[in-house]
Design goal:
It comes from Paracoccus acridae. Its main location: membrane. Its EC number is 2.5.1.141. The chain is built from 15 helices and no strands. It has 305 residues and is mostly helical. It is flat and about 55 Å long.
Length: 305
C-alpha cells in the first residue's frame, strides 16, 4: 500500500470529497438492505430507534469505505475508473481519510450499541473489520476469490438490521445474507469482463486476470445457479409470501438466462459488440438485488403466508 498525500498546488478538499470517501453508492445499498432486514423482522421497533439504527449502520458502512480508499489509494491511482477519487486526485490526504474512517467506525459502533443493542453493535464492528482488514488488506491483493469471500462484508447489513430488531440471528436473516453473498460474484465478474484492463494494470488478482475471461464466464453462470435456490427459499419463510416468491422466480430466471448468454459468448463476439451482453447482465444484476429486497418490503406490507 502506497500512501498518497495532497501535493502542492492540488485543489483544496470540499465537503463532497469527504462524502465521496464514504462511497455513497455502496452505502446506499448498505442502508437499503439493512433497513429491509430491520423492517421485515417480526418485532415492533420504535421508529426513532429504527431510524438511528439505520443511520449508524450507514455511518459504519461509510467508515469501511474511507478505510478502503485509504489503503487502496495506490490501486485507485492506476485504475481509470477510480483515478478521480479524492486521495489519488490529491484533494484529501491519506492520513485524513484513515482518521475519518477510524473515528466514524468507533462512533457508529458505540452509538448503535446505545440505540439498539450490543449484539448488533458487535456485528457492525466485525463487518467493518472484515471489509477493511480481511477483504481490503488481505484478500483483494492475494486471491482471485477476493470477491467471493470478501463479498460477505456487503452481505452482513441485512443481518445487522435484523439483529437491531431482534437481538439475534435467524434463518431469515441468514437467507438474506446468502442472497447478497451469492449475488456478489456474478455481479462483479460481469463488470470485470469489460473492465479487465483496469484490474490487470493495478495488479489486482481478479478472476479475469488470473484465470481469463472464459473461466470467468463459467463462474458467472455457476453462481447464478447457486444463487437461485437461496433467493427462492427466502420466499418460503415467515418474511416471504406469494408476491416475493413470484418476483424471485422471475428475477432468477432472467439472471440465469443472462449467465447462460455470457457463458455461450466467445471473446471475439464480445469484443465486436463492445461487451453489450455483459454490460446488460451487469445492469440486470443491479435491478436483481434491489427488486428482491423491495419485494420483501411489499410482502411485509400486504402480509405473508
Amino acid at each position: 500500500m502506497t500512501d498518497i498525500n495532497t501535493y502542492e498546488g492540488a485543489p483544496e478538499a470540499e465537503f463532497r470529497d469527504f462524502v465521496a470517501l464514504l462511497k455513497p453508492r455502496v452505502m446506499s445499498l448498505v442502508v437499503f438492505t439493512a433497513f429491509v432486514g430491520l423492517w421485515v423482522a417480526p418485532v415492533d421497533v420504535h421508529p426513532f430507534i429504527a431510524f438511528c439504527s439505520v443511520l449508524f449502520i450507514a455511518l459504519g458502512g461509510g467508515a469501511s469505505g474511507a478505510l478502503n480508499m485509504w489503503y487502496d489509494a495506490d490501486i485507485d491511482a492506476v485504475m481509470r475508473r477510480t483515478q478521480s477519487r479524492p486521495i489519488p486526485a490529491g484533494r484529501i490526504d491519506g492520513g485524513a481519510a484513515l482518521s475519518l474512517g477510524l473515528i466514524l467506525a468507533g462512533f457508529a459502533v458505540m452509538m448503535l450499541g446505545l440505540a439498539a443493542n450490543w449484539f448488533a453493535a458487535g456485528f457492525l464492528a466485525f463487518t467493518i473489520f472484515f471489509y477493511a482488514v480481511v477483504y481490503t488488506i488481505w484478500l483483494k491483493r492475494w486471491t482471485p476469490q477476493n470477491i467471493v469471500i470478501g463479498g460477505a462484508a456487503g452481505a452482513f447489513p441485512p443481518m445487522i438490521g435484523w439483529a437491531c430488531a431482534t437481538g439475534g440471528i435467524s434463518i431469515e436473516s441468514l437467507l438474506m445474507f446468502a442472497l447478497v453473498f451469492f449475488w456478489t460474484p456474478p455481479h462483479f465478474w460481469a463488470l470485470a469482463l469489460f473492465m479487465k484492463s483496469d484490474y490487470h494494470e493495478a495488479k489486482v488478482p481478479m478472476l479475469t486476470v488470473t484465470h481469463g475471461r472464459p473461466a470467468t464466464r463459467r463462474h458467472i453462470f455457476a453462481y447464478t445457479l447457486v444463487l437461485a435456490p437461496f433467493a427462492i427459499w427466502l420466499g418460503l419463510t415467515q418474511v416471504g409470501g406469494p408476491v416475493y416468491l413470484a418476483a424471485s422466480v422471475v428475477l432468477n430466471a432472467l439472471f440465469i438466462h443472462g449467465g447462460w448468454q455470457i457463458l455461450r459468448r466467445s471473446e471475439e463476439t464480445a469484443v465486436a459488440d463492445g461487451y453489450a451482453v455483459e454490460k446488460r447482465v451487469f445492469k440486470l444484476s443491479l435491478y436483481y438485488l434491489f427488486l428482491h429486497f423491495t419485494a420483501l418490503l411489499v410482502q411485509n406490507w400486504v402480509g405473508g403466508w
